[in-house]
Amino acid sequence: MADSGHPANDAWEALLTAHASLIKRFAVTDVFQDLSMREYDVLYTLSKCPAPVRLTELNRNVLLSQPALSRMVDRLADRGLICREADPADGRGVLVSLTDAGRSLQAAIGRRHARDVARAMTAELSPAELRQLEEMCLRLAVATVRSGELN
Fold first, then answer.
1. Strand, coil or helix: what is 139?
2. For residues 105 and 39, is the Cβ–Cβ distance under 8 A?
3. Minimal CA–CA distance to 58: which of 47, 74, 71, 42?
4. Residue 1: pLDDT above 70?
5. In the chain, where are the structural domains located?
6. In the predicted model, is pLDDT for residue 150 greater than 70?
7. pLDDT digits (tens, 9 = 90+) for 58-94
8. Alpha carbon distances (Å) from 19 to 24, 69, 80, 146
9. Residue 148's pLDDT band (boundaries 50, 70, 90)?
10. For FRET with 63, which of 45, 55, 72, 124 sits at 20 to 30 Å CA-CA?
11. Assigned CATH topology for domain 27-145
12. At what angle do helices 66-78 and 37-47 cross, to 10 degrees?
């Protein structure tokens, strides 16, 4: 990575490089079984929702286009991992949630993935550095939401 003389751009490039390297590392493990990492991301995101959510809300929290997410939800529903139901507040809307099978699969994969993440992160960063990284990333995320850039 070349020093561009712009600390913000250099930090951004370093963040993206670290993310890409870690994603590649995790992708080659057998942790995700017969799910793709993106499918797991959808299950994980739904596991954090206390109630069924609209597809638009789910789309705000995953890195997929709306059409790609709709197709993925269809595939995951066909596999019995996600439940789709009409939104009683708006008949045109669809609510999605994990089925018991989806919740169970996400939890099992999540435990193994969490161990891989912990191993990768603690191999290079101290506990204090991990806390600092978390705080910086959360500040950036909150600032982006607060500025209205994410809708």
1. helix
2. no
3. 42
4. no
5. 27-145
6. no
7. 998 898 888 999 999 999 999 999 999 988 888 788 8
8. 9, 21, 31, 23
9. low
10. 124
11. Arc Repressor Mutant, subunit A (1.10.10)
12. 80
